[in-house]
Amino acid sequence: xxxxxxxxxxxxxxxxxxxxxxxxxxxxxxxxxxxxxxxxxxxxxxxxxxxxxxxxxxxxxxxxxxxxxxxxxxxxxxxxxxxxxxxxxxxxxxxxxxxxxxxxxxxxxxxxxxxxxxxxxxxxxxxxxxxxxxxxxxxxxxxxxxxxxxxxxxxxxxxxxxxxxxxxxxxxxxxxxxxxxxxxxxxxxxxxxxxxxxxxxxxxxxxxxxxxxxxxxxxxxxxxxxxxxxxxxxxxxxxxxxxxxxxxxxxxxxxxxxxxxxxxxxxxxxxxxxxxxxxxxxxxxxxxxxxxxxxxxxxxxxxxxxxxxxxxxxxxxxxxxxxxxxxxxxxxxxxxxxxxxxxxxxxxxxxxxxxxxxxxxxxxxxxxxxxxxxxxxxxxxxxxxxxxxxxxxxxxxxxxxxxxxxxxxxxxxxxxxxxxxxxxxxxxxxxxxxxxxxxxxxxxxxxxxxxxxxxxxxxxxxxxxxxxxxxxxxxxxxxxxxxxxxxxxxxxxxxxxxxxxxxxxxxxxxxxxxxxxxxxxxxxxxxxxxxxxxxxxxxxxxxxxxxxxxxxxxxxxxxxxxxxxxxxxxxxxxxxxxxxxxxxxxxxxxxxxxxxxxxxxxxxxxxxxxxxxxxxxxxxxxxxxxxxxxxxxxxxxxxxxxxxxxxxxxxxxxxxxxxxxxxxxxxxxxxxxxxxxxxxxxxxxxxxxxxxxxxxxxxxxxxxxxxxxxxxxxxxxxxxxxxxxxxxxxxxxxxx
Length: 736
Description:
Layout: H1 16-21, E1 36-42, E2 48-54, H2 56-59, E3 64-68, E4 100-101, E5 107-113, H3 116-125, E6 127-132, H4 139-142, E7 159-167, H5 170-176, E8 179-187, E9 199-204, E10 210-214, H6 219-230, E11 237-240, H7 257-267, E12 271-274, H8 277-283, E13 290-298, E14 304-316, H9 322-332, E15 342-350, H10 364-381, H11 386-393, H12 413-424, E16 427-429, E17 432-434, E18 446-458, E19 468-477, E20 481-488, H13 497-509, E21 516-520, H14 537-557, E22 563-570, E23 590-602, E24 608-618, H15 625-645, E25 650-651, E26 654-655, E27 674-680, H16 702-714, H17 725-731
Parallel strand pairs: 1-12, 10-11, 14-15, 20-21, 24-27
Antiparallel strand pairs: 1-5, 2-4, 2-6, 3-5, 7-15, 8-13, 9-10, 9-12, 13-14, 16-17, 18-23, 19-20, 19-22, 23-24, 25-26
Helix pairs in contact: 6-7, 9-10, 10-11, 10-16, 13-14, 15-16
């Protein structure tokens, strides 16, 4: 039986036909006989105690079946990292502080009726008496001793995360520096803006399980959180993912899952919900805003000697994944460079804003913006090319990260920097690397320049968690393998992961791609896959499926028919931060990226356009090159939105940009003129067929590359994004 060499090819996606023809079933498309409809009453206020909920008028609406409030939830708490959020906020809650709303998207009641219209009418007739509480919206103010407490039940401080790095002697390092650059960088909220808002259907299945069909990123953790809140054993809850209309980290945390499960469990009838876009925007977490203050020093030869960083991230009302996101920010805040002396303090702070949540890049884009901006400013001060200074400091195998241990090898940041630079037209000269000349437009108000930035990102879960992923493979046939069935619960959130899984199974057992059938995303008959996050799914699922495939193949050769094997892959171990120094081996794999961006600035209007983006990414092994290109292009466009257009506006905790008419994301007319994907393949020794993760990586360097390009074009540094026209014009001195 010969391998078919499926790895490295680009077969048509398994879900392509159904998605382009409209036949794919997304959560909002689901229906069942006898189905009820749910609406949610949101708080719409940032901080208040719920004193009384009067549902009298609402219950009188024809068609209303039930109204659930806090007293109906058996264990009224949930949270991915810390169970600090009530399912429903109000009197009668089973947890301390469960009667308090802490941001505008907190849920107060769930209304179930025979029609959406009846549920909506009843929702609007619920009368809630609130006692407004002192609120805090600025994380720096929230750190002060006299600030209002968001979670007094959790202690006497709003600081929920504090990580430290203490490597070497930072003050001695600065004494060695010939040049010191200080900066303050401000990063915004970002809305995930996935195409399908939160939606789902819950019912009791044929085995009596509370079954929830919904879009998420980790079936088994969704199940755990629903079971916990309902006070049920996990085996009595089932989570199934249909087609998912995008995620980007925004579906890691709960939205409609628990209240749907509650209603189906209590009423024994199917219940469906679809949020409006406005509800989606206020109801799920956002990329963490941050203020980052930095001081970096280098010698006149361009060698980094010291870096000091203070990072304050807005956690919003609940923990969500702030502790993990900012852990990643801590690792990345000195960039993919060797710096012998580092002092870093990273804070996550509770406020009464929308919670900070996982979002593509997971804390790396914020830190990379500061680190790469510092590199570009040091290059200017030292009269060095931005590529040259990076190559003089780029990590090599054996160099220690800021956490005091070497990055797992091979470290390929040098290769990706050189690849991006060459593709963009940089030349290697005896004096060092030199940027390509820029042809300026004839219109004097248009200015062009090249920007450059690099970045790196962990693959897989970190900080001592034992990374794992389960799979099962079945080989069917008589004298030869006629059909392969692979089971894996990993989420397909649009990235093509199920297609890549099928390719890896086919390669492992030596059959054509077409012989593989994937059975996916159902807790009823599958083990834990881990999350579709942390750029981990190809790496972890690939190792699990390969292990199961090889074990099944061994049984096949022993004449078992069908040959069935399960396998759980355990990744290399990691360690948490040492509390006072940050010393750790936090990750088992990193991936590396670099980007060159040609920027055009209209100095009359403040508009910033991306003419060309050269994105070099080390993927270890491109399992499916076309899908890899799609991930790179999608990440670049999403990062462009973050850098330039997406202006999430809040006022005293209230979201003003709560529609896609006021929160503008890139359209086909906004995207770069050219995105050139440069895929490098430096195999990871533990990755399946050498693969590393890719999903988040190309996002990370773009924003600082853009601001570097603006500086090259205009001589002006812009240290806050998004680069909306007013901000650009202000930095150019055109408006005050």
